[in-house]
Amino acid sequence: MPIIVRLDRVMADRKILLKDLAEEVGISNVNLSKLKTGKAAAVRFSTLEALCKALNCQPGDILEYESNE
């Protein structure tokens, strides 16, 4: 999959735990874990916005495109 989720890296940089971020963003630990590990099939813009607000980052810090070439 050419879209890579870098949420784990951003969370580590900010020293925030999954449970704390999930609570702040308002999603379940399970759904945030799926997103963090790249197993989520989709992410809502509202969730992405909440993550960026909580982590004080840009969407490009969390999601990255990598060509298969």
UniProtKB/TrEMBL annotation:
Check the record and name the Pfam families matching this protein: HTH_26
Domain HTH cro/C1-type: from-to ranges:
7-62
What InterPro entries has UniProt attached to this entry? Cro/C1-type_HTH, Lambda_DNA-bd_dom_sf
**Lineage top rank: taxon:** Bacteria
Q: Entry's SUPFAM superfamilies?
A: lambda repressor-like DNA-binding domains
What PROSITE patterns is this protein classified in? HTH_CROC1
Its recorded name reads: Helix-turn-helix transcriptional regulator
The organism of origin for this protein: Alkalibacterium indicireducens
